[in-house]
Amino acid sequence: MRRKLVAGNWKMNGSADSSRELLQGILGGAAEVAAVELAVFPPFVYLGLVEQALSGTAIVWGTQNLSEHASGAHTGEVAGPMLKDFHCTYVIVGHSERRTLYGESDEVVARKYAAARKFGLKPILCVGETLEEREQEVTEAVVERQLKAVLDLEGIASFADAVIAYEPVWAIGTGRTATPEQAQEVHAFIRARLAAHDAALANQVRILYGGSVKGSNAAELLVMPDIDGGLVGGASLDAKDFLAIAKAGC
Ligand code: PEP
User: Fold this and answer.
1) R_g over Cα of the chain
2) Domains of the chain by range and CATH?
3) How confident is the model at residue 236, as a pLDDT?
């Protein structure tokens, strides 16, 4: 049985005050959605206040990115051991905004995934196709290529401690959600690709859906057999909406 995970990607939003307020709001309703694992992903600079607010609670946290390197002359980067200092559980790697806006290739994403594991962080590996790729009917080929880069570098066993997020790029921040059937089809494909290497492990891996998930559409997505939770952007900035998504997964 895979426990659902609802992960809030705050992206580059908020202030210290609004982050504290958001966390208080989430904490206020967390007990009602205890069946679901909750995680938040603040900007790096708010990690300290997130750790302070959430330590000792059931909610875990992580970051939206990390360096592929352990330390050294990498101005502006943040390394895995630094995230461990703040007791992060997860780290998102390969978000489509990192891939498209910051030029992260499949190989860079795979190295970041490896770095996360090396320093004891669980990677949430994002994969997904652009609108153009969907229209060209190459969704499966794109997702397979993105997965393969990680499988080649780290192997199937690495997925025992990892999460995958299927995020069609055309659905992120656009208000346009994949239909439950469209999402399920790709989730089942991802699981089948993993199962080709190790069927038992594939059955345990959580595959989240991301792309304009909100309280009003979460239930129909989270009920699908291969959708194990959500990676939520915009709606994670509103405690009520975030908790409503989690409630849909209970
Ligand atoms: C995301 O940032 O991963 C995301 C899915 O964003 P949104 O929910 O706003 O589409």
Assistant:
1) 17
2) 5-248 (3.20.20.70)
3) 98
